[in-house]
Structure formats: structure tokens, C-alpha cells
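Reviewers asked in the last cycle whether our approach scales beyond single polypeptides. To address this, we selected a multi-component target totalling 850 residues and predicted its structure end to end. The input consisted of the following lines:
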Amino acid sequence: MNGSSTITERDAAVAQPVPRRFRNWIVFWAVIVWCALELLTYPKDVPITSGFSEILKGFFSPEVGSYPAWVMVVLAVACVLFGVLGLVRGSKAKVMNVLLLVEGAVLAIWAVLAGGGLGAWAAGANDFSYNWALQTVVVVIAALCVWYWAAGNPERAELVTWNTHQVWRLYRANWQGMVGLGILIFFVAMALFAPFLADHALLDPNAQIRDPATGELFGPYHAPTAYYYNWFGTDQVGQSVLAQFIWSARISLMVGLLAAFMSTVLGAGIGILAGYVGGWQSEAWMRLTDAFLVIPWLPLAMVLAAAWGQNYWMIVLIIGITSWPGTARMVRSDTLRVRELQFIERAKAIGSSTGHVMKKHILPNVMPLIFANLVLVVAIAILSETTLSFLGLGDPLNFSWGTMLHYAWVNGAAGLPAWWYLLPPGIAIILVVLAFTFIGTAYDEVLDPKLRKREESTAENRFTARGEPAVAAVGGAGVGGGGGIFTPGVQTDDAMPDFNQPAGGSIRPEGGGGWVGGSIEDDEKGGE
Amino acid sequence: MDKRRYFIRKILNAVLTIVLVASFNFALFRILPGDPARLLLPKGKTDPSVIEKQRKTFNLDKPMWQQFVFYWRDTVKGEFGMSFSEKRPVTEVVAERIWPTVLLVGVGTVFATIVGMIMGVFAGWRRNGTYDVVSTNLGMILYAMPTFWFGLLMIMLFATKLRWFPTGRMEEPGVELSGFAAFQSLLKHLFLPAFTFAIAYVGEYHLIMRSSITGVMKEDYALTARAKGLSENAVLWKHVVPNALLPTVTVVMMNLGFVMSGAILAESVFNWPGLGLLSYDSMQKRDYPVMQAVFLIASIAVIIANLIADIMYYYLDPRVQA
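The resulting structure, written as C-alpha cells, was:
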């Protein structure tokens, strides 16, 4: 329970720059991310029946699916940009910035190879194989980057560790949140392990399934039987609905996540700008937000999808640019609140620039809200994707749950009635959307103690029993700037770093003022 | 703020937003990739002389600022060009589709508002009781459900299996009815699409009304009403509900603007001949002039609904007047 958030004397003596729990995370998540990426690019044509060694070989197969080259270009440019910016500004995590440059270089090489070589570079070409090797290198460097970030900013790493730990403790006590997480893990696992669950060849236009008992084709709209691929029956041409259902999970989740991410980045950026800069600029941003808010998204999306053609990047783009205003308004109002807090005044008084304050103080403080909102936007984005696909605007080459419903609709499944074709995708969408809603609400409740049901929550009982004075650390959380997620003194029984002191043994005593989050020296430099 | 200034500010704001959205509509069809003249033609028609003619009719050969002026002149006059799938003026095509949509949306909204609010009132009143837990989770499921999927299920159950209602359209093809029989037939056709349209909003209004009631019940005046010995019913209906209505009414009005999305889905699934089906059909036929007009109408509907919500708020909430 106590882990590294308790700064014991032994820890201080060893002088570990990276908190132990943080190190464990890096090791844990790097492996998870690596596995997820490997599974995403796992070859679709290695059937489950081919045996264990073949399946294992599939992970290191040169013949894997690959990403569009332009994605690599964007990532490489972003890495190099952040690395150079960090080096120029003389940030504390110098090694991380160098590693970012290396990461950018690796991604650039990948982009060239994935684009078909320098001679005939094409942003979408997929000639290159051996993605798995480069993928591994990228993940390892990324993990190292996080490591050296923590080494360069020990007090921030400490705070992140502590905050995350507290959030998880409170979150765990919320049964709805845990149910949501469970549903989500189920569907994500289904999406990732799709190659092992259903043969992708069954999605080919002419791949009807046969009854293994009689050796005959099931034929169109056959009701479910005990045979695995016929669990959900067949569609209008006699294909397996189960195979479609499993592979659809990938597209539905991916498009939902990417679109929500794009919408949140746009919305949060504009919201912070509109909330912080003030004057006519704020007004202009708000007018723009209002104008976008009244644009009815579905007619607009239909126009755009009809004109731009049908593939999933377009759907992501369309959902992204039509759904950001809600986020922008919410982030703006929270920015207005944070702007009035004292530590902002302190930062401005010692000469921090607007950009520095926005990045180092406003953003970390509105971040929890942005994250909670992101989770809810994912739910909306998945519904939006389903709607667009249902109307026939989805990618005709890739199945999503919406596309399945589209085919069911236009082929008259409702008139038969072929319930086995209609129910699975619809129920899956409801479950996933509910899962994200539950997770978002639970996280909201963690962030805002007022929303928590005091009488019922077991976690809350544990906290109120201790009854620490509420004001104990209010000032600390505010000054910290790095993570005023909630007022810590109110509900914690865990040893927490005293924010008014230099944060425990993990900070070198000579390292400046020791304010958690943006330190004074940091703010002074940020003024340029 | 005095009344006139408040209204003038809100109306000016609405007008400004309409101008912005209409300009966006102008820009939208010109920043789209490809030649706008060709976009405004049916697929496959690539004859240069036809394109040239199209360019002339839509003034696409003029400089941008002149196009902008012409666009505004036509929009104000209500001219959106010819629908090339129906070979008629867009205004005419759109006009005959408005009433079915208004009927569907009106019935659906009234139903959703009444049912959702009453469900929410009881859920909020006995918070965390059995009814609340069941109905709130049901509300969340309804909220998470794709409207069109529910529509398909309705067709499957009530039209195909039980044969209680027709599967779509507004009237039986080829059957002439009059008087009460026609009305009955219309109701039968209206029921499923309106129910489908309403169901998503029922969940939303339920959740909003519930949280609003819970909030009001914490207020001092609710406690006072109880303390002076009023019956539970009197407290609920005379003191709590009127105060809790305010935020819900706002949300209902705001949603009224966004009915287009719901209408597109409900109408496409049930072949209801309204604006939604029109925009779905014109999307499939790439009938851009019609899409442009529908898009503009939908946007203006949102702005006007927002304006009405603001004006209603002025009368409903005395705090705004202060």
C-alpha cells in the first residue's frame, strides 16, 4: 500500500531519482504497449489452426500489416520538435531530449522505409516489412524517455506517482467504474486478439461458411447453431457474423479513440487559449466555438464524408472537427477558475511569460478535467462513428459495428427477422458506450469529492474515520501547480509528501526552491 | 439587465451566428476538394460545355467576393438552385418535406419530454431507491443506444413479427383514405418513427431531471416546506418540481435545435418522407444543392431554438432579469 509514496529514510539515503512505483510502471506499461502494438500489426493471414510455433512466428513475421507512412512522418516531426525545443530551453531532463531526437530519427527512417524508399516515396505505401523490429526499438526508446524525464524532474515524478496512486485508490471503490473498466478490457482484448479468435479470411466477400457436420454451406441468413463460426448465424450471403463482429471491434474502438483524442486536443487547446489570454482574442475564440457549437454535426458530417470519400481517417477527421466545441467550453470555464488561483499570480509576478504559465501551470491543473472529458468524448465518438457507418459513409473495405448494421439494414435483416445479425453489434456498442460513460463518471467522482456518495462509499468511510483537518495541505496543492487533482488533506490516510517542504528525500537539497511542479527557477527561465 | 438590452443582445448574437454559419456554408462547398462546378453536377456528367453552363448558373466564373455577394442575395431570397436528382427548384423540394419532419419531431419531443421528466422526477425524489436504480440505469442504456438500431429492433418486433404497425412510409401506397380513416392510418405510421426518435431523449431528460431534482431537494426552501408540515406530494409538486424544471427546459430547447440528427436516422430507417430522409437520399445521389439547403436550414433551426431558450429563460428565471 505504501510503496514509494512514503519517503523513508532508507530511500533518501539511497537517493533514488526515479520513484520505485514509477519504475515499475515503466516496465509494466512498456511491455503492455509493445504487446498491443504487436497484436495490432499481427498478420491477418495466420489462421488459428496453424499451430503454436506458426503463431509465435507471426509476431516476428516480416509480413505484417503496417501503418500509413504519413503517420510516421507526423510522429517523427513531433519528436524532433519537442526534443529541440527542450534542448534550446535548457530543460532539466536533458537526456530525455536527446533520446527524443533519436526517437525522431528512428521514426524518420521508418517513414522512409514504409513509404517505399527514397526513390519513389509515397505517403500511403506499405511496401516495407519488419515493422516489428522498428516498433520494438521505438517502444524501448519511448520507455527510456519516460525514465529520463522522471530522473530529470524527480519532484514531478513523485507527484504524478502519488496522485495516480490516490486516484486509483478512490476509483477502485466505485463499483460502476470497475464494471466499466471490466467491459472495456473485455472488448479491447477481443479487438487485440482478433487474429486468434476468428480467421480474417472469413471476411472476404466470397467466404461463405460450411457446416462441418454435413459439409454443406449454411446459406444466407442461417440462424445460429452450436458451430463456433455460426454462433451469431450468417449474413445475407452466408458469411459468418461472428467473424465480422470480432474484427469490427478493432475499427470501432480505434476510430472512437483517435477521433476523441483529436477532438480533445483541439478543444483543450482552444479552451485554454480562450480562458487565459483574455481581451479580444478570447472573444474571437469563443465566437468561433459558438459558431461550431450550433452547426448540426450529422448533416455537416454527411456533406464532408460524401465529398471527401470514404475511409477511416476521414471519419476520424470529421468527428474530430465537429465535436470539439463542447470540450473547449468546459476547459475554458475551468481555466477561468484556475487563472484566479494565487500561484498563477506568483508565477506572473516573477516574470513568467503567458505561454509558460499556460503550459506549466494552467494545463496541469485542468488536465484531470480534460482527461475525464476525453473518456466521455470517446463514448460519443464511438456512437458517431457507428452512425456515420450506418448511413453508409464508413470504409467499405473494413468492417465496423456500424458497417455491419448498415449491411443488415440495407439487406432487410429487420424484415426477416434476422435478429442474430442485428443484436450483437448493437449490444456491443451499447456496452462499450456505457463502459466509457461509467469510467468517465467514476473518474469525475474521484476528482470532485462533492459528487461522491458519502454515506455509501467504503473508501470514503475509511477516510472520514481518520478525520485530518481539511486545511492541512490546501495551500500545498495550490502552490504545487503540478497536480491539484483534489484537496489532499481531506481524505487521505496515506502518507503524502508535504507540499510546503521540498518533496522528501528525492530532491537534491541544492536544487532550487523545491516547490513541487514548476519551480521558481523554472518560472524565471520561462519568462524569456 | 433591463429587458430590451437583454433581448437585443441575444437577437444580435443570433443574427451574427446565422451570418457566420451561412458564410461557413458558402466556404464549405468551395474549400472541398475538386471543382465546385463539378460537385454541383450529378455524377458522371463531365461534358465541358455542361460544366461551363453550370459555372455560369452558379456564378462560379466570377471572382470570389462577387460569388459571395451573389450567394447572399440568393440565400436571402430563398433560392438554392436546382435539385438535379428531382429536376426541380431546391426550395420546392425542401418545402414539401418540412411538415412531415415537424410532425415527427413535434410528437417525438413532446412524448420524450413528458415521459423523461416524469421518470426523472420520481427517480430524483426517492434517490437510490429501487425504482431510481432501475430507471437510472435504464436511462443510461437508452442514452448509450444508437437510435437507428432501436428503430430496426422496433421494425423487427412490431412490424415484422407482431404486424401491429407498418414498416415505414407515411401512408399505404396506392390507398386513398379520407377523414378519420386517414388520420388513423397516419397515427399508425407515425407511432414507430416518433417512438424511436423520442427514446434517446427520454434517457437524457430522465437523467437531467433526476439530477436537477436531487439538487433542488438539498436547498433550504425544500427543507422549510417540509418543516412546516406540507405533505410529501405538496413539497414535491409545488416546491421542488417547478424549480427543477428550469435546467431541463433549457436542455429540451437546446436539443430541439439538434433534432436534425435524430430526424435523419429515424426517417431513413422508417422511410418517413421528411427532411431527414431527403438529406439521406440526396447524400446518396450526391445532390449537393439540396444538401447545402438542408444543412443551412438545420443550422438556422439550432440558432433559433437557442434564441427561444434564452428568451424563455428570461421569463422563467427571475435571476436573469435582476
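DSSP finds 22 helices and no strands in chain A. We regard this as preliminary and will revisit it once experimental data from Aim 1 are available.
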